[in-house]
Amino acid sequence: MKILTIIYPSTGIGESYTAVSFSKQMKSCGHEVIYIGHEMLKFILANSSDKIYYFKNNLMANKILFEKVIKKFEPHVVLFTDYHMYKRNQLIKIPFYFEWLKNTNAKTYIIDTIGNCYKKSVEGSIFGSDCLSLQVPNWVEKILRPVPLHDPIQNYVEYVSYCALKNRVSSAPTVDKILHKSTNDDSKIILFPIGNWIDKIGNINEKKSLKLIIDTILTYIDDLNIKAKVFTFGYWDYSFNFNNIEIDQSFSQLSIEETDYLIKKSNLVITINAISNMASRAIQSNVKVVTFVNSKSRTLESLKCECNISQKNKKRILEYFDDKFNEVSRYMIFPETAIEVLNKFYSVNKVTKSLMNIVEIFNEKEAAEILRSILIENDKNNSDLYSKYIESCRKLPCLSKIIEEKQNEKSY
Questions:
Q1: Exposure pattern of 53-63 as b/e (b: 16+ CB <10 Å)?
Q2: Confidence (pTM)
Q3: What tens digit of pLDDT does each residue of 369-382 get?
Q4: So what's the architecture of 173-381 in CATH?
Q5: What span, in angstroms and rounded, lies between the C-alpha atoms of 379 and 288?
Q6: What is the architecture, at CATH level 2, of domain 2-164+395-411?
Q7: Residue 317: pLDDT band by 50, 70, 90 thresholds?
Q8: Which of 52, 54, 302, 380 is the most buried (most CB within 10 A)?
């Protein structure tokens, strides 16, 4: 089969890696794959011979490009991600119409990382009737959910399939070279995927809010008095001064194989995106994950939060914002994911939740205890739970089989 993978630009980068990972699975099964996507693909697909076409910032140019690719390649299948981001940013960042896919001979499959897409009834979304749920057109063949971001469960509606990501990379010389050059034998390696969220920031106060979040997390690590190298994944233009940790942006652009290898070499992955594709890749590699969330109420009341904020953190907050600052979302994590949404997500995906540590960002005591247990006491994941998870993943049908069976249905 011929597979066209369309990766709609997102403020994160994990969705792109997930889509490429699935596409590489298809290619390993003998299928031909090409891509339409954003400029980051040149790094994610480094050393790949697959053809890549890049989105333009003009609707008509993208329509011409799309029609050209369809006519020349004649795909049997289109893999599309991320529909959630497409609906949020439709015609704002990248002008593209999803409905163009309807008028082709290819069958469309949506990679649904958040789990909020459905076709015929809201039961297809893990969020049910919540406003976050998105109805996709009925002509979409299937909704595909990646594991381990989602639990390895079988379909609970006929048009939803759960597919396991693969991670079999055993070497990456470029990564080894940088790690050998920049870290000591006793240095902890911490990966902090930040994505391209800084691109979505619209004003100086939001930019300060994101810097506050990053500063708070890194201070927790610095206060442990251990040598650590924090490799950012993505981009920020902030500067920080710490006593014990170094920040390195050498890995801001890596191929998918190099990324998976770097994750395996890390002692810890930290994230401020509670529904993080990169965190799920760490879980897959049995690397500890700490996800920082923020349940601060959306009110104008000063420092209202479900956890006790230490005086040290209050002081840090007030260094960024004086007490009269009236931005209601000033302490929200990027992207702004309501705590109610996270609770719903993890009430369904209980295995994924149990394999990561979810911490209130301003709960200094709890954050310090968890980071200490991982980085100093070398606390490991529950081996029995992890083994059961791996076994469940192995039982999942591969993406190629799911698509081949669906395509064969149409041929009768």
A1: bebeeeeeebe
A2: 0.84
A3: 999 999 998 877 66
A4: 3-Layer(aba) Sandwich (3.40)
A5: 9
A6: 3-Layer(aba) Sandwich (3.40)
A7: confident
A8: 52
